[in-house]
């Protein structure tokens, strides 16, 4: 289980997974600390994530940003109402739970919460999954079998009551042997739900909208058949 580490500066707290506690440093959350060993993620997202390759470490550092109109006034601060509501801490704890349950997610490392007055900034560190590409980057090259496998993986998360608040084709990673879901910010879990539960349907609709956004006039005709293959995997017993 992750343990809380107090930072040297007032209001700085870190939630660190057990395997990383002995060597933890708050510097891990500073992009400048890594020097040439860090590079920005270029696919999906809002430019708030970096890849770290340093001394055997292969990690991802992600900084939490606001979306929508509010981001123009306040890019990365959130109202602090207690550590139980800190987004990075909640995501790390959820990843710990999902890892224990055998679901394909990245391994969590540590999360930060830096209070600034009545608000806080947050970041999370996770292990990088090697040899993967996003579903969005290669959607039109995927076979029907691969699409069915993606549908099956989404179904497995739903069977565990996991509602992914940003289920889109860039948060699904495809490896040689497995399909992974990433970015569990603001996700939540439901108790036992029927297969046709409204939240599951809406989650699939969100994924479909993200696929529609990457289609071009030349590729739009392929969408219905490819989506049907994914649904076949999702609905398979």
UniProtKB/TrEMBL annotation:
It catalyses: an alpha-Kdo-(2->6)-lipid IVA + ATP = a 4-O-phospho-alpha-Kdo-(2->6)-lipid IVA + ADP + H(+). It is a peripheral membrane protein. It comes from the Bacteria. It comes from Marinobacter aromaticivorans. Belongs to the protein kinase superfamily. KdkA/RfaP family. Its main location: membrane. Signal peptide: none annotated. It holds the Pfam family Kdo. Catalyzes the ATP-dependent phosphorylation of the 3-deoxy-D-manno-octulosonic acid (Kdo) residue in Kdo-lipid IV(A) at the 4-OH position. It is found in: Cell inner membrane. The active site is at residue 166. This is 3-deoxy-D-manno-octulosonic acid kinase. GO terms for molecular function: kinase activity. The lineage of its organism: Bacteria, Pseudomonadati, Pseudomonadota, Gammaproteobacteria, Pseudomonadales.
